[in-house]
Design brief:
Length: about 130
């Protein structure tokens, strides 16, 4: 059985190594305006880090402003574009309707489990 297993494993390795030798075609194209836009987005992220309230928040969180600038500089173009688009989509208050609904649900669930209310049929009172 050992010899048979070795032959099977060797055959599998030959097939795998042979499939890796197939050349992959290279693709070339014209640079689009998206590549230029990501540079603008990176500059926007850097300018956000220069704001005093952002630097104060970073300091409160224990993050060095120079380290944050270095991380922004190390982002790829796609990551910078994604981060900039996420910043545009965030609500100004920091919490959206889904967050509020989740907090309300958790409060009601907690009061239901503690026995103060009976809202959810799937909970049992601790009392």
């Amino acid at each position: 059985m050992t010899g048979r297993f070795r032959r099977l494993l060797a055959g599998l390795l030959i097939v795998c190594m042979g499939s890796m030798a197939v050349p992959v075609p290279a693709l070339a194209g014209i640079v689009s305006t998206d590549a230029i836009v990501t540079g603008v987005e990176r500059e926007r992220l850097v300018s956000l880090l220069e704001r005093s309230e952002i630097q104060a928040q970073l300091k409160d969180l224990g993050v060095d402003a120079a380290a944050a600038r270095a991380r922004v500089a190390a982002l790829s173009d796609a990551e910078a574009a994604q981060l900039a688009s996420q910043l545009d989509e965030l609500p100004a208050g920091g919490i959206d309707a889904l967050g509020v609904a989740l907090v309300v649900f958790l409060v009601l669930l907690f009061t239901d489990i503690m026995g103060y209310t009976k809202i959810f049929p799937f909970t049992r009172s601790a009392r």
